[in-house]
Design brief:
The complex is a heterodimer of chains A (198) and B (629). By secondary structure, chain A is an alpha+beta fold. Chain A has 7 helices and 10 strands. In chain A, strand 8 and strand 9 form a beta hairpin. The mean pLDDT of chain A is 81. Chain B has 3 domains: 198 residues, Aldehyde Ferredoxin Oxidoreductase,  A, domain 1, CATH 3.60.9; 172 residues, Orthogonal Bundle (Aldehyde Ferredoxin Oxidoreductase Protein, subunit A, domain 2), CATH 1.10.569; 200 residues, Aldehyde Ferredoxin Oxidoreductase Protein, subunit A, domain 3 (Orthogonal Bundle). In chain B, the strands form 4 sheets. Chain B has a 6-stranded mixed β-sheet with strand order 2-1-6-3-4-5. Chain B has a 6-stranded mixed β-sheet with strand order 8-7-12-9-10-11, with helices on both faces. In chain B, helix 2 crosses helix 21, helix 18 crosses helix 25 and helix 21 crosses helix 25. The model of chain B has no long low-confidence stretch (mean pLDDT 95). The chains are: A alpha+beta (198), B alpha+beta (629). The interface between A and B is large, with 42 and 48 residues.
């Protein structure tokens, strides 16, 4: 059987290639292990991703229960999306005392087995991106599951700041590019003129 | 409760320091929808005629609509409604940012601020945890510093803050309320109302949800709507340059207000145009809540006298107010002026127009250095503008006079200066000119809050969208309806636009994508509202039109109670008597009367008094207004 390995396409009405190509006999479409990848340069801080995430998982518009978080810095004019992964090591897995948080060896995605979870909240504290939450109403851990491989946030993002595809180390490095150069420029001029930014 | 609403009104009484949660009257939903509609109903019922806008009896409403906080494009907006300090009549100011959505998540459709606090406070709302907190150490701070300080106090970066600056504390008549550092509820002086009540800020944090009636249907239509925004060529252009693109367009059609509206073309326009600014100054793109367009630009000045200025904005109106209107062809000055206005909390349009008024009065010899405290005013002097802005924000020296707005300043200065005060009903004219765009002449003259470009500005004729005009108003009204130099059919265009914008302001969604570029209109609202609320009454354009008409007439009745009649629906002589001196519209002048008569006829208002007739009150079920005087 022939195989085609492809990345996920973004967009609001993304087609599932497996369905598109299902008519071709002896051909299988395989998605590459993917991660949510973030580009600070493109994020406008609109929080549509938070809305779509909560709508999909909670059936209502409730950003406080979204599986990702946009942090807005109004004084600097910057917005930083925090999503689950890509993590080199997974602190949430390492810290879990009952092995409820696991990591898929191929996709590197971490996932929670709710049956085992004892609600100790260790993962909430350990997550470097701050996107694992405790829902205090229903008493459960809230954690991104990449929508089972078809993440809503990447589909609705209007600028392509959040994409879903195979992780490359360059993306991880790039995502710090904007903030570093930006802060340098602020620092430079602050010495000379004073920007008033805090 | 009907989908979309939280079903609760939060009242805070500053005099006795009490919060009260009421349920939203169900019977308001069908006739008023939300936002502006609820605000108009509440304010009309609860304010007595003739009260002082800066007194204890005035109330300030922070309102949201049924789709605020949902996935529908640009639905995080908020409206501030009160009796306006600038004009003494109906006051409202819409603002982007995130506070509206946060208020819904906290569980309230409306926040009503009443009474007057003895000492400076800020209102702290976290879900059902409600407090008035001491703001003594925050009094006097600029809006950005207050916002940061409150976030620090609460130890939560997601707290949404609406703050006033020194201008609001000093009750500058056009003080604004600032959200997210650079989103302004600018016009009509809402900041002064908060200042008069000793409220430094409103901080909101919510963890709840907004639930719609039919989530699947809603999401499908909302995603589709986002795609329409993303694929619209004009919207894409706006993502890149915001409203700056208008500068070149307005210059081309001779409607770029210059030298205090004397003319409509500005020689230095190129240095204020999008193509010049974007590569030189813009370092980032931002958006308000739920917006896939993202028109906000973060700009940074690298060199020159204003080097180091980092700020969002200004919009087209800011480029006009601190640029062409006072003869300055330098973007950095407009950015600096914008920053000062944001930090002091002042309306950019009124501030720029009041300064332009003073400059013209000085240049033409009506006032002298004796009035200005030794300042020599002239066109195009950037240092003077920055200095005057700071003086207004602090109400120092000549700034004390200008802080009252151009109408009051002219009354105080006398000596024929009133002909330089370009205002309607006390509110300064925005960046349009009725002489080269007739429909806005009617819009400025009839706007409920004064010279207003946001409630009825017809863009279709101004920028020549023939296809859109044909679809909305019928082929039979072409070509006159899109001819900016004729009065014919302009009342129809203003009437229908005002109706659609009314619904826009009850939802509440953004000006952009409804008014310009023209993407969504009544039929889209008629589809999304039933999906959100489950109220099928909203699924019909005729019903929505009637709701809009009710709202416009209700605001008119509010103004009528304050003494507004047909005599106030007029324009400064500049537009009625002085023909446009140069540019493509040279020689054009406004003939207001025929447009007014057409408009009153469509609205069902009396042709002589300009007030709603008995028949209209009955048709719009507004007879209850007669019991509140």
């Amino acid at each position: 059987m022939n195989q085609t390995l492809i990345n996920r396409a973004g967009g609001l009405h993304a087609k599932d290639f497996r369905v598109v190509m299902s008519d071709i006999v002896d051909h299988e479409v395989v998605y590459l292990p993917s991660q949510l990848i973030v580009d600070f340069n493109k994020c406008t801080g609109c929080r549509i991703c938070e809305l779509a995430c909560s709508a999909r998982h909670e059936g209502k518009f409730q950003p406080s229960l979204a599986r990702l978080k946009i942090v807005r810095y109004d004084d600097l004019g910057m917005d930083i999306p925090n999503v689950c992964g890509p993590c080199e090591t997974a602190p949430c897995v390492d810290i879990c005392p009952v092995f409820a948080m696991r990591r898929d060896p191929i996709t590197k995605m971490t996932y929670l087995e709710e049956d085992k979870c004892i609600l100790c909240k260790s993962c909430v504290g350990a997550c470097v991106n701050g996107v694992i939450l405790l829902d205090t109403e229903k008493m459960r851990i809230i954690k991104c599951d990449h929508c089972g491989g078809d993440p809503e946030c990447a589909k609705v993002c209007p600028t392509g700041a959040i994409t879903y595809g195979p992780d490359s180390s360059s993306a991880t490095i790039d995502r710090h590019g904007k903030i570093v150069s930006y802060l340098k420029e602020i620092e430079r001029t602050d010495k000379v003129h004073g920007t008033g930014a805090e | 409760m009907t989908g979309g609403y939280t079903g609760k009104i939060l009242r805070v009484n500053l005099t006795n320091e009490k919060f009260k949660v009421e349920s939203l009257p169900k019977e308001w939903i069908k006739p008023y929808i939300g936002g502006d509609g609820f605000g108009a109903k509440l304010l009309f019922e609860e304010l007595a005629a003739g009260i002082d806008p800066l007194g204890e009896q005035n109330k300030l409403i922070i309102g949201t609509g049924p789709i605020t906080g949902t996935m529908w494009p640009m639905s995080g907006r908020t409206v501030l409604i009160s009796k306006a300090p600038l004009t003494g009549i109906w006051g409202e100011s819409h603002v982007g940012g995130f506070l509206g959505a946060e208020l819904k998540y906290a569980g309230y459709d409306l926040l009503v601020i009443e009474g007057k606090s003895e000492k400076p406070v800020y209102i702290d709302i976290q879900d059902s945890d409600l407090h008035l907190r001491d703001a003594k150490n925050k009094w006097g701070l600029s809006t950005d510093k207050v916002t940061i300080a409150i976030k620090k106090d609460k130890q939560d970066p997601d707290v949404q803050v609406a703050a006033i600056g020194p201008a609001g504390e000093k009750q500058v008549r056009y003080a604004s309320v600032m959200f997210n550092h650079a989103r302004a509820a600018g016009r009509t002086g809402m900041g002064a109302v908060l200042g008069s009540k000793n409220v430094k800020a409103v901080a909101v944090r919510g963890h709840g949800a907004v639930e719609v009636h039919d989530l699947d249907g809603f999401m499908e239509f909302a995603k589709d709507a986002h795609m329409r925004v993303r694929t619209n060529p004009i919207a894409r252009g706006m993502s890149r340059v915001g409203t700056w693109g208008l500068v070149a367009v307005k210059q081309e059609i001779g409607e770029f207000p210059t030298y205090n509206h004397e003319t409509g073309v500005f020689d230095g326009w190129e240095k204020l145009s999008a193509d010049y600014i974007r590569p030189k100054y813009t370092i980032g793109d931002r958006a308000c809540f739920g917006c896939s367009l993202g028109c906000k630009k973060v700009n940074y000045v690298k060199e020159g006298p204003f080097a180091g200025t980092l700020e969002e904005g200004p919009e087209y109106e800011g480029l006009m107010a601190f640029g062409s209107l006072i003869g300055i062809d330098d973007y950095a000055t407009t950015l600096k002026g914008n920053q000062i206005c944001n930090r002091y909390g002042m309306d950019i349009i009124s501030a720029g127009a009041t300064i332009a008024f003073a400059i013209e009065a000085f240049v033409k010899g009506a006032i002298t250095e004796k009035d200005t405290g030794g300042l020599k005013l002239e066109w195009g002097n950037r240092e003077i503008v920055i200095k005057l802005l700071e003086m207004i924000g602090k109400r120092e020296g000549f700034g004390e006079v200008l802080a009252e707005g151009s109408k009051r300043a002219a009354e105080k200065l006398g000596r024929g200066t009133e002909k330089f005060a370009i205002h309607v009903k006390g509110m300064e004219v925005s960046g349009q000119d009725g002489r080269t765009h007739r429909s806005i002449a009617l819009g400025h003259a009839t706007g409920a809050r004064g010279a207003d470009h946001l409630r009825s500005l017809v863009v279709v004729d101004q920028l020549g969208y023939e296809d859109v005009a044909a679809k909305r108003w019928g082929v039979d009204k072409l070509p006159e309806i899109i001819d900016p130099y004729t009065e014919k059919y302009k009342a129809n265009a203003v009437f229908e636009s005002e109706n659609a914008y009314c619904i826009r302001d009850t939802l509440i969604v953004c000006w952009y994508t409804v008014s310009w570029p023209p993407i969504f209109w009544m039929e889209d609202f008629a589809k999304i509202l039933p999906l959100a609320t489950g109220e099928n009454h909203f699924g019909n354009v005729e019903n929505l039109t009637q709701i809009a008409e009710r709202q416009v007439t209700l605001k008119r009745l509010f103004n009528a109670r304050e003494g507004i009649t047909k005599k106030d629906d007029t324009l400064p002589d500049r537009f009625l008597k002085d023909p446009m001196p140069d540019g493509p519209g040279k020689g054009q002048i406004v003939d207001l009367e025929p447009m007014l008569r057409d408009y009153y006829t469509l609205r069902g208002w009396d042709l002589e008094t300009g007030l709603p007739t008995e028949k209209t009150l009955k048709r719009l079920s507004l007879e209850w207004t007669k019991h509140h005087s």
